């Protein structure tokens, strides 16, 4: 069966359709509507180990668990093993996280220049040391997972060395975004590499896939062609948190129900309400401009809707736009 439970170390999940950690998007509000939409597991956006150890209140907001999340992971990034270990212990003290994920894949220059994100896959020994430190710090209280990329660039494909370092360090799962750091989010994700990783590491730890999963059909194809244990949706879930439920329907019943515009906008308003509770109306309404643009994609008169959305500043503005 393509849809099935997944065991990550001591953690057992009911299914294998996950919300990926997406910087600037995977906050508590968005994760909550994705859980409503059928996500089996969710990841926070990247949390800076340095900021967390300094006591940043903004960082603690990023780690908040949504009321309807039965299980979720906090993703940490950093380059210093000792600081990452301390941050992991703080995550366990301050949250109810069920898993800690280590970001070894972010291609953003400001992250890489600190030695974090994709910079780690250039140095398997450093990756091993960092993952080992976090695994030791959590002391089996929760599993530790790692997200990697296929390599630094086309001339430096390092997924196998990175995966081996992750396994040797004691991680309980590995996720591959099958693009190089140089590709960023451009070009195509190479699922052949994901298949090779699943063959290489799949007997030892679960292998999850990320990259170019924009529809239920994409998710089914990834599972069928690569043999990975689970799928992470990132951009495919933006404005469409129901993609998890639709994918499960496709995998189990070979069809899925379409989602009407009204239901999509209802989810958007739930997300807005949660964001207002978390960040206040002003900040929440600014943040929801891009998100309501995603929710309204494909709607009749979409261009005019989006023109009005990008100027919205209050909850009432959004209600006026959508005639609620």
From TrEMBL:
Residues 19-318 form the DUS-like FMN-binding domain. Keywords: Flavoprotein, FMN, NADP, Nucleotide-binding, Oxidoreductase, RNA-binding, tRNA processing, tRNA-binding. The keyword Nucleotide-binding applies. Its cofactor is FMN. Gene3D superfamilies: Aldolase class I, Putative flavin oxidoreducatase, domain 2. InterPro entries: Aldolase_TIM (IPR013785), DUS-like_FMN-bd (IPR035587), DUS_fam (IPR001269), DusB-like (IPR004652), tRNA-dHydroUridine_Synthase_C (IPR024036), tRNA_hU_synthase_CS (IPR018517). Its EC number is 1.3.1.-. It is an enzyme of class 1 (oxidoreductase). Belongs to the dus family. This is tRNA-dihydrouridine synthase.
